[in-house]
């Protein structure tokens, strides 16, 4: 059974778990819970970040993807990279984390509502269970929602 003491852990569905920053010991539990890949949206300089997280995750047999997202300045290119990573892992059990699960919850909300077709209200409830984005994060969400992700030019 996975150690649910990871800060702001959320089990979104059978294929997706999210959290704030896991400690080194948490990764064994993440692997034991059947997760096949870890996506890290925190910076290398973020509080609590393991300098060897990639190796720890890969040594446990999971894939590792690092998409550093600057909290004060998230970019659409970060979101596109996240969508691409999630699309490439579709059908696998994926664990996504950052420092507090705020970056992650915003990106997961957009991915679920814009790419997976999860009803927007349902995806928003999961986001708002952690926080209500404002400022630059609200602007990023609004800009992403204005894009037709199914359009030939914007298909990723």
Task: State the main characteristics.
156 residues; alpha/beta; Protein-Tyrosine Phosphatase, Chain A; 5-stranded mixed β-sheet; 6 helices; 5 strands; 39% helix
Describe the structure.
This protein has 6 helices and 5 strands. It is α/β, with parallel strands linked by helices and 156 residues long. α4 (102-115) runs antiparallel to α5 (120-128) and α4 packs parallel to α6 (135-145). It has helices at 26-32, 53-59, 76-88, 102-115, 120-128, 135-145; strands at 10-13, 16-19, 37-40, 63-66, 94-97. The chain has one domain (10-145): Alpha-Beta Complex (Protein-Tyrosine Phosphatase, Chain A). α2 (53-59) links the parallel β3 (37-40) and β4 (63-66).
Brief description of this entry?
The chain has 156 residues and is an alpha/beta fold.
Topology:
Elements: E1 10-13, E2 16-19, H1 26-32, E3 37-40, H2 53-59, E4 63-66, H3 76-88, E5 94-97, H4 102-115, H5 120-128, H6 135-145
Helix pairs in contact: 4-5, 4-6
Helix share of residues? Answer: 25-40%
CATH fold label = Protein-Tyrosine Phosphatase, Chain A
- Biggest sheet overview: 5 strands, mixed
Structural class: alpha/beta
**Radius of gyration, whole Å:** 15 Å
Count of β-strands: 5
- How many discrete domains? 1
Task: Estimate the strand proportion.
Answer: 5-15%
CATH class: Alpha Beta
- Order of strands, widest sheet: 1-2-5-3-4
Supply the CATH architecture: Alpha-Beta Complex
Q: Which consecutive residue ranges, at least 5 long each, have pLDDT under 50? A: none
Q: Summarize the helix and strand pattern as letters.
A: EEHEHEHEHHH
CATH homologous superfamily label:
Protein tyrosine phosphatase superfamily
Shape: globular
């Amino acid at each position: 059974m996975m150690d649910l003491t990871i800060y702001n852990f959320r089990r979104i569905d059978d294929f997706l778990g999210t959290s704030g920053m896991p400690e080194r010991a948490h990764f064994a539990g993440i692997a034991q819970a059947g997760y096949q890949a870890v996506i890290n949206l925190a910076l290398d300089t973020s509080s609590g970040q393991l300098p060897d997280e990639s190796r720890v995750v890969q040594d446990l047999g999971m894939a590792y993807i690092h998409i550093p997202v600057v909290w004060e300045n998230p970019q659409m290119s970060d979101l596109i990279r996240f969508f691409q990573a999630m699309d490439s892992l579709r059908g696998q059990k994926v664990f996504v984390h950052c420092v507090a699960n705020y970056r992650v919850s915003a990106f997961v909300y957009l991915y679920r509502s814009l790419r997976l077709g999860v009803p927007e209200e349902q995806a928003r409830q999961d986001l708002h269970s952690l926080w209500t984005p404002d400022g630059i994060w609200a602007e990023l969400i609004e800009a992403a929602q204005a894009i037709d992700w199914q359009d030939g030019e914007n298909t990723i």
